[in-house]
């Protein structure tokens, strides 16, 4: 049978959807897009369990299949790279549990499920229950590190909750006997597998708490499947571990196995042997520590004797320094030092006064009226020379500018044009310039102005310019 579970609660009113107006005509593309948005908003992430069929993996690396049960089926797709991360190879007939989002393939209007995670069913259900309980207890703060108690470094008595016939208890006793055989160990027998295991462990923890004979408890068992270790994923057991008045160390299964009891315990060990090593110090380490402490104590005694001898020498030196003869000698030395300081101070004061007098004389000479007149004359001569140079430079700049303007004016002057062989015609009667043959008639008097003089001319014939139709040029 196919089962569906939602990751999060969905609101009845789906946000983000657009209302369709009455009488609005939709295209297939618009309809499919609205349907996809509605479906994806309502089914953001769900869990589905069913049987695989029509499994296909094309060269693109994507995975396409159908998930079915006895009454229905749904098309599914798992895109790369998620399809390459699967720890197993999906095949037809396999019963799986997957998480994904419901969508609609718009081009063909096909309803489909886009898978994001897939696992084989059975063990997956236990793992989901494990993750749900872990998340709920973690949200309550049951696993917070602030509430965990420290394991005593030197336990006086240890209680071990485990099966008395298992391999774990032998490993624990062997390690404890090798590392620290002085500590007493009580085996508190409990079942470590099956439905009766969790209540029995809870009862033993409560009995140990009432007895108060142990400094620390160890809850342990050997490795196994998730079903074998399921007794340690009990909520009541986790709460009892947190309520225990003495710290509890948990070592359940192998290093890669994790249970709720280990999260709730004050300390987790990867294996039973590792837990035993964490509970007690190593005898060899203690022997080495005692040897180090012995050497440190001997060194401290020797250093104390040396410090006391040095202190005695210092006190003897202080006693000798307080003798009247020594005090009188120090007073003479101090008097000589003070006399030398007075002499040096007097010398420095005389040098400072002489320096100030020399500086005052220099300033007085510099401010004499004759010196000021000489400086003023020098400054006037310098200014006169600068004025002369500036006037010459200004005249030269204006001369160059005038020459440049003359050249520019000559370049555009009509006289320059006449020097190249051209002439200007005018009518003496009117004084106007002749610009067209239409302005003169035969026998009219005209005057030609050349570069070097005037010519008085009479018009004999007027011939307007004609255009040659073959060559497209004017003929005169």
Brief account:
This is Exodeoxyribonuclease 7 large subunit. This protein is of the alpha/beta class and 476 residues long. It has eleven helices and 16 strands.
Q: Could you characterize the architecture of this molecule?
A:
Belongs to the XseA family. Bidirectionally degrades single-stranded DNA into large acid-insoluble oligonucleotides, which are then degraded further into small acid-soluble oligonucleotides. It is found in: Cytoplasm. One of its GO terms (biological process) is DNA catabolic process. One of its GO terms (molecular function) is exodeoxyribonuclease VII activity. The protein has about 475 residues and is of the alpha/beta class. Among the domains are: about 5 and about 25-120, Nucleic acid-binding proteins (OB fold (Dihydrolipoamide Acetyltransferase, E2P), Beta Barrel), CATH 2.40.50.140; about 145-280, 3-Layer(aba) Sandwich (Rossmann fold); about 295-330; about 420-475, no CATH class. Helix content is about 45%, strand content about 20%. It is built from 11 helices and 16 strands. It has helices at about 30-40, 125-140, 165-180, 195-210, 235-245, 260-265, 270-280, 285-320, 325-365, 370-410, 415-420; strands at about 5, 45-55, 65-70, 75-80, 95-105, 110-120, 160, 185-190, 215-220, 250, 265-270, 425, 445-450, 455-460, 465-470, 475. The strands form 4 sheets. A 5-stranded mixed barrel has the order 2-3-4-6-5. A hairpin with a 2-residue loop joins β13 and β14 (about 455-460). It starts with a strand and ends with a strand. About 15% of the residues are buried. The model is unreliable at about 1-15 (pLDDT under 50).
